[in-house]
Amino acid sequence: MQPTDQPRRSMIYRLLLENGAEFETCQDSAVAMRYPGNAAEAEQSQSMGIADLSPLPRIGFKGKDTPLWLKQQGVQLPETPNRARKQSDNCLLLRLSDDEHVLLGDLTLRSTLVATLHQSWHFQPGQMCYLVPRADTHSWFCLSGKHTSDMLAKVCGVDLRLHKFGNGEIAQTSIARINGIVVRNDLGQIPAFYLLADSASADYLWPCLMDAMDEFSGSPIGLATLQSLIARAA
Amino acid sequence: MKIIHCPLNGPRNISEFAYGGEVEAMPDPVSCSGDEWAEYIFMSDNPAGLVREWWLHVATAYWFIAERNTVTDEIIKTYPPSELYKQRIEFAKDID
């Protein structure tokens, strides 16, 4: 199938096609599932790989009353800002400040929490909890493998070495000179980082990261590879 | 590269920050004179020595306060604005 067959697709789908991506339909989105030209995707994910997760569900909420509202919806919050917490259905809640949160859907696409929260939220005067449509504002990449920290050191000033930047930590910082959110979210034993950045700059960021990972023989990997890593870790 | 300690995000390169002017007490916008308001909006004291300034961590759009020595360009400390401002300021009444 072609990504343009679906109502939703990644903001960098043209680049992914150039990279040789094969797309599949997930809900109403076209997702790069695999790269048939790359016979060693699984090994690549353990060494240095990048996956585009931009079409996957995510949502944000901000405002003083957000923590209370999220708790009322059954969401478990991290204790402090700049931490992430995995939910029982494998969604990941990012706490960006005391009152700003982003929920990333699970990579197996089984969870309906993002859609449920979207439907549950209504604007109520006096309640300071506001919806932030993060699926449209941010691209979402996953960098995985043992060389990821070394690669990120080339484009980011924050110390993201594995013994300094623990699993579940968040850094909101400059990545390749654009603002972004880095989240460490290991896939079992494999170090992995989510990267969220301005969607309009995704066409710039993807080639930047591909260039930075070139010396580590990095290459794109599909969502199917990440899903199999998760299944193996479970 | 200089490092600023953001109260929310920790130490970051100074290139991630933007300067936001001196921290000054805001006159009552309803009752103050035009001269007082212009003084507040446009004029800086610019002293030599310790000043309190607004700084923005651009990556998170997070405003905070830094105490800086303008002679040595040394940042003494940084803290969230909630340490100075305890109450929300309403500029307009709620629209029903």
Structure, explained:
The complex is a heterodimer of chains A (234) and B (96). Chain A has 234 residues and is of the alpha+beta class. Chain A has eight helices and 14 strands. The longest helix of chain A is centred in the C-terminal third of the chain and has 11 residues. Chain B is mainly β and 96 residues long. Chain B has a single domain, classed as Folate-binding fold (2-Layer Sandwich). Chain B is 9% helix and 38% strand. In chain B, strands 3-4-5-6 form a four-stranded antiparallel sheet, with no helix packed on it. Chain B has a two-stranded antiparallel sheet with strand order 1-2. The radius of gyration of chain B is 15 Å and the shape is globular. Chain B starts with a strand and ends in a 17-residue tail after the last strand.
Low-confidence runs of at least 5 consecutive residues of chain B: none
What's the CATH class label of chain B?
Answer: Alpha Beta
Unreliably modeled segments of chain A? none
Query: What overall geometry of chain B do the principal axes of the alpha carbons give?
Result: globular
CATH topology of one domain in chain A: Alpha-Beta Plaits
What would the principal axes of the Cα set say about the shape of chain A? globular
Structural class of chain B comes to mainly beta
Number of strands of chain B: 6
Arithmetic mean pLDDT of chain B: 92
Total domains of chain B: 1
